[in-house]
Specification:
The complex is a heterotetramer, with 2 copies of chain A (343 residues) and 2 copies of chain C (612 residues). Chain A is of the alpha/beta class. Helix content of chain A is 28%, strand content 19%. In chain C, 37% of the residues lie in helices and 20% in strands. In chain C, strands 11-10-12-13-15-14-20 form a 7-stranded mixed β-sheet, with helices on both faces. The longest helix of chain C has 20 residues. Classes of the chains: A alpha/beta (343), C alpha/beta (612). Strand 2 of chain B pairs parallel with strand 17 of chain D. One thiamine diphosphate sits at the interface of chains B and C.
Amino acid sequence: MSTETLESPQPLTKKDFVPPNEVRWCPGCGDYAILNSIQKTFPELGVPREKFVVVSGIGCSSRFPYYMQTYGFHTIHGRAPTLATGVKVANPDLSVWMITGDGDGLSIGGNHLLHVLRRNPNINILLFNNRVYGLTKGQYSPTSDVGMKTKSTPMGSIDHPVNPIQFAIGAEASFIARTVDTDPKHMVETFKAAHAHKGVSFVEILQNCVIYNKDVWEDVYGRDARAEQILYLADGQPLIYGKDKDKGIRLNNLDPEIVTLGESGASEGELLQHNPKEANSLYTTLLSQLVHPQFPTPVGVFRALERPVYEDSLQAQIDAAQESKGQGDLQTSLVGGGSWVVE
Amino acid sequence: MSTETLESPQPLTKKDFVPPNEVRWCPGCGDYAILNSIQKTFPELGVPREKFVVVSGIGCSSRFPYYMQTYGFHTIHGRAPTLATGVKVANPDLSVWMITGDGDGLSIGGNHLLHVLRRNPNINILLFNNRVYGLTKGQYSPTSDVGMKTKSTPMGSIDHPVNPIQFAIGAEASFIARTVDTDPKHMVETFKAAHAHKGVSFVEILQNCVIYNKDVWEDVYGRDARAEQILYLADGQPLIYGKDKDKGIRLNNLDPEIVTLGESGASEGELLQHNPKEANSLYTTLLSQLVHPQFPTPVGVFRALERPVYEDSLQAQIDAAQESKGQGDLQTSLVGGGSWVVE
Amino acid sequence: MTTSSTQFEEKEAIVIRFAGDSGDGMQTVGEQFTDSSAFAGNDLATLPDFPAEIRAPAGTLPGVSGFQLQFGSREVKTPGDAPDALVAMNPAALKVNLEELVPGGLLIVNTEAFKKSNLLKAGYESDPLEDESLSTNYKLVKINITELTKQALSESSMKPNQKARCKNFFALGFTYWVYDRPLDPTINFLNSKWGKRLPEVADANIKVLKAGYYFGETTELSQNRYQVSRADNAPGTYRKINGNDALVYGLISGVQSASKEMVFSGYPITPASSILEGLAAQKHFGIKTVQAEDEIAAIGVALGASFAGRLGICATSGPGMCLKSEFMGLSAITELPLVICDVQRGGPSTGLPTKTEQGDLLQSYFGRNSDLPIPIIAPTSPSDCFWVARECVRIALAYNTPVILLSELYLAIGSEPWCLPDLSTLPEIPSNVIQPGEEFKIYKRDPETLARKVAFPGMPGYEHRVGGLEKDESGGVSYDAANHENMTRIRAEKVQAIAKSLPPTEVNGASSGKLLVLGWGGTYGAITSAVNRLQAEGFSVSSVVLRHLNPLPLDLEDILSRFDKILIPELNLGQLRLLIQGHYLRETIGFNKVQGRPFTVSEMVEKIQELL
Amino acid sequence: MTTSSTQFEEKEAIVIRFAGDSGDGMQTVGEQFTDSSAFAGNDLATLPDFPAEIRAPAGTLPGVSGFQLQFGSREVKTPGDAPDALVAMNPAALKVNLEELVPGGLLIVNTEAFKKSNLLKAGYESDPLEDESLSTNYKLVKINITELTKQALSESSMKPNQKARCKNFFALGFTYWVYDRPLDPTINFLNSKWGKRLPEVADANIKVLKAGYYFGETTELSQNRYQVSRADNAPGTYRKINGNDALVYGLISGVQSASKEMVFSGYPITPASSILEGLAAQKHFGIKTVQAEDEIAAIGVALGASFAGRLGICATSGPGMCLKSEFMGLSAITELPLVICDVQRGGPSTGLPTKTEQGDLLQSYFGRNSDLPIPIIAPTSPSDCFWVARECVRIALAYNTPVILLSELYLAIGSEPWCLPDLSTLPEIPSNVIQPGEEFKIYKRDPETLARKVAFPGMPGYEHRVGGLEKDESGGVSYDAANHENMTRIRAEKVQAIAKSLPPTEVNGASSGKLLVLGWGGTYGAITSAVNRLQAEGFSVSSVVLRHLNPLPLDLEDILSRFDKILIPELNLGQLRLLIQGHYLRETIGFNKVQGRPFTVSEMVEKIQELL
Ligand SMILES: Cc1ncc(C[n+]2csc(CCOP(=O)(O)OP(=O)(O)O)c2C)c(N)n1
Ligand SMILES: Cc1ncc(C[n+]2csc(CCOP(=O)(O)OP(=O)(O)O)c2C)c(N)n1
Ligand code: SF4
Ligand code: SF4
Ligand SMILES: [Mg+2]
Ligand SMILES: [Mg+2]
């Protein structure tokens, strides 16, 4: 923070985003990999460093801003969407990234997340889903499965979990994606797509909390499982997955079903084709219903719709008002409604 | 509130639910009709009057408890779901009805609504949707359309609205319905269905605020529009509507489409058949996407799924704990972990 | 208008109250009477009083809506105590308000409304108009306003119920005749409000207004008429203004003087909603307004905007203040500029949302976890909201701190004439931002003000992180014991240091004496009127009405020490009193009223006399 | 164990601190040392001290986790000031803690950890163990604990890094030898914790523990050994208890004495989470626990349960208290029983979440809109949390009011021995519910206590509505001026009336004199120890430590008047002090510490002496 580097270094490299202070997550935490991927992504976005703002709530995941050499705000629990909205509305020129956890974003912060998604400011939201409260030492979260035994649920959780993707659809999010903390390449790709999207981007990141929910995603993205369990979404491509690319998803009335391709199986043409531009909620809902273990887990961009961007609409109203009324003149406004003169 | 009527009157009639104090809504407000229908419904549910609890937040709609001669709690803005959950968890024997508005339930209270829906306690939630803030004199609400001019949006709202049904799906509600304040019979039917459902029931009621959003639903349920614009959902019946019952909804891939029945048109068999027990979210999502003016507006029970009921699961854990550990003996527990005796 | 034959009686000041159903348009005619009186050059103050329900059932007691104003040729600082005249549009309005009418006062009733059903709704067993005591005790003027309105509109093509809705303007017209008010301001208002869209509505109302006026002229009612001459006001351009409008203009003026963009975020709540609404209508000033999903979000948006280098502002009332408390803590520990307006209303909880109170002072002081003072400033009159808003902007930006602007419903919706300032003469408001070449440490402070400097996104080279965990001077997260103690103390001292920037406290009256009346905020009018009156009668009493509540003025302790007794009137159970006693160990006498209403001048006078 | 040849030096009390990486198991060995000392019959108190991060990076200063305890043959009321002995498992632990070790104190270090990389992380430029001053100033015992642990486990089949993880038990074993602690409690603990699931882990740790012990026995270290005899405790059954556990048991005991079902709803937050967790583990007591979506929901659920006739309880810390404030207002205006636990932590904002503070007193008093007092009670020691929890249940049910239980992190996670009460002798706790045949008006009050009676859903004939709008006596919504004033005053008086049910305030020492030390809550230990010490030396000093903070005890003003000076020590900037001065106009002297740490006895002694 010296005054010598008043110009942001160009071209930027990953190192430019590493602050001097130490990272204080547990060794092995999935958050490290995500941090790494973000630090790799940012220099490639063509945005000067001083225009990045990283905003978070409270939680292990929400310590993120402290580990990024950008402007950052570690706010309060659940409220990051409000602050991020304020930043973006105030200065639409900034690249605003919001970090939240499954507890921060979907428990205490669910309402703000709902409203930031429907308002559609051009903010990128990354939800680190480890299905547990890390920072408070291991209570269940809104994404924990029924039956999960934690300190606060010694006999198992009885709350039906929230499906973050389904929630985002309910909130009419214009961009919805998922990625995993074990796949740096996919993370970087996904983050770039989020950045490219004009409007709010919601990215669920499957993240491993090694202390309180170790290996919760192992069956989905573990070394052995990955090839058979992950469905990579690609624009215009059929929903195919499996080590041998021999399985696919087909629609049976309104039910998705798994089919095997090839000889005695189904043909590729029967499969659903991925189209993130599909405005109809049904398709995105279908993807959200592909849930482990019955189905492979889709990752990639689920949806990317063009919708008016909040801060643009706001600015447009100001422009229109100034066009029609002229730039406000306060002295005139004061007299406005009716005045009289005492001599 | 005298002590003479210690037994609740049997059989109950509508009059038993009318308190002595005056109703203070604006003349012509849709809330009167809803109140009337609830007062008609309650005596028919076979529940003693003293077991009804009506809980609300803040808003015109939320004054509701004051107008019901039952136990009632007019709480604070947006928080009724939490208080209702407490009542039901404390005493599962009570019939708990929660009243909220589009502002109370979906603006400030969106998060609690999300969580009460996913937890699935056996509570009946009625959301009065007049697409405006009534009590604070006419600002836009989360269900207001983009462009709506109100006191707080003199140049038109720029917020993409929430679709309450879609929101409830995102929250994994087990029972979702819609009714209208102009159709007392349909209201009573719907309220009875909500009561019959074990688990949380979410009912959106299209309601007319004559002062700040007069006739907002006129194009949907107005005398002239009604016959062509309302699609009555009936279990097992095809999605047919129209004065002459000659229109229906068919699925085209994942898109709903309107077809005309009969001679040169489509056959009934092609139409979607209503099934509120359909567990797959896609079907309910489809119904939620039938939005005026492109589509007719469905009313009735969208979804009714059996899911574990929150207070039952909680009680089951207590029973199991007592079964395995016996009823707690505190003196023994105190000694518990390790103790020593000083003589 | 033509001069009437009746003689006018000259009055120094008159208090009039309009009362009727919520749907009767009493607020409208009250505002019109106000405008007309302002136009006539009177000083004045108003007190609208309406139910929390939008339209409570017609004819009932809870449905009564009232509007009181005082206008005078001398200085008028309150809407008056008991009304000299009451317009009662129906039995409920009579029932609710009669008790307060001064004996012998003018009582105008709409006889048509005194039907059985209405009498019943108001709880009258028999028609009070037939009770002789009414005409004995008051100057009773019975007019069938409804009928006369209909007659006046006999040729109009409007529907009967539309016609009936004009009756408030008949009543208004009659009062204009009694008090010799000019009709033009109201005619202009009607034309500009309805003229374009619904000219027949404008015409009808104007016709009825005039009918009311001429009714006085032409009937045989032996009615006195009164005149209130122009007040002796300083030269200048005046307008009528209520507190929330003044606040809106003050905020705009503040950010303009600071060359800052404003981002305002609010969530509707009575009586703060009109600040959001007022600012939303000013988009051409480049103001961004966001209606947030709740009060937490509103302050979050505002704080985000301040972090991004604009000025974030939000406004709410008591229940919303509860919700903002956690974010207030964050804004104060991160030391970012922010203006938080709290327009107090009757509490506790949802309370009495449309009544006034001063209940949130201690909440503003202490309503968040741990020691974390925030500056608090309270306006003393509707137009003072303008000046206090500017002062809040000044402190927020100079000290990089949240500031609470503690207004009251009474000021927010009450009106008074305001001599408009020449904005070009107002001082610039400096921001406290890091300058090129300066070394940036987040919590490095100016040794005098203890304020830090801010740098914001977009400024290269100053990238840094803020947040709610305790930090050391360079902004690193620190759990160090000594650092925490130091930061906690310095945050408190920084707020105290603001006191050095304040002008000497104004004492109304002698600077020492028997009794000092010490108030704050909206009690200014009643206190000053009472104290002035008693001073004129030769009593040794002075008054101080605080605007700066945190920090308290440096000279306050000394001022207190110069009086034998201190009386602290508050519309709460003694909140400032606790602070004064706690800080200065000075015994004080509380005068507390918690009725959803302001102090009257006479109760203030009486209380003071009791102590002298 | 076999008796060693070394002679024991007898000590009255010893303070020992274990310090190492967050992952080094310092909390575990601290707890074990505590259990062992409790078993040995000592009085004791503990102070765990850990970072807010789950596992900060190994070897760094912020990653250091500590655990201090004092054990003695005399009464021990605090975890001690400067430690007599320090176990430092790595350079960072040494760096952070060395300063506080008493000169000449015992310093045990794990030499293996003093490698270059670790030294760098801790900010040491050279190896401090090679610095002669260390062995000059302290009794330095260098042990290669890691290596010796490995050797002890040479025959174990565990993986090397698993073996290394046992090293904390080596350190523990060695301290057991030095302080003559029994090994059995720890061996039993290890067996019962790991024995079934992972017997090899239990065996390994036991082996290492013994190796540490015998290391003292067998090496040539010329090490003194110390003995601390049994404390002279009253007869009874004892256990070690921390504040949150005691609170959990107190709440259960309270609702049992009241024959009420408990519905507890919490949202995790340090340091209150373990209350939710503790109660969730007690389902067989019929307790219902709900983990809510946030703190607003938690209090809402609890209040709903109370309305339904159960007792709703919630627990949180400062930031959560902010969020509960609006619902607190609703609970107080509806006058429903409710217990709100606030376990205070270092603030403001997110602050220092794992450090202690007394910052929320004024927030508890005033943190909601308008005048609306809520009773506040603060426990004074870990085991006192049990009694205060019962008292909160009593007041909530007797007066039908929310009650704030104001605990502190220091008490919540600190432990002490507790002489278990015979529960069968505890008084019943009556509920204040309408009885059959009684007339029910919602706000009809007992003339003595001013409490209302409740009726709840399921009781036929008492159907009624409550809510946040102001009400009249029969529960109707009322905007009436006089009613509002009356209700506001009566709500305040009701809380004041509780004072009549309190026992006389205990003064520690003479009932008059030169100095009274007035504290509240968790400062009890330090204040009492200091005052007792000075009394023994003949000084005229007494102390009062308040548990009831709202209402303040009736006899307090009188007690204050009997002392020349009043000292008010608080872990904040002077919150009780403001209240005392404000209420009693009594000048006081503040002693304020805001460091995330409790007062030490010696700083308290020093401060008092300064004033005598
Ligand atoms: C108002 C408030 N309530 C509670 C907390 C305690 N708290 C801190 S983080 C957290 C949950 C974090 O969970 P998640 O968002 O999933 O983040 P993770 O630690 O798992 O990354 C909670 C409950 C708080 N800091 N503030
Ligand atoms: C904490 C808080 N914020 C704001 C308000 C003000 N307020 C009362 S009702 C309401 C909105 C009501 O809208 P809705 O729920 O749609 O009810 P309606 O009046 O339309 O039936 C608001 C903003 C409040 N009472 N409390
Ligand atoms: S507790 Fe879990 S989520 Fe938090 S830092 Fe450790 S591993 Fe990561
Ligand atoms: S304002 Fe609208 S919603 Fe409220 S009572 Fe009047 S008509 Fe009904
Ligand atoms: Mg998590
Ligand atoms: Mg509404």
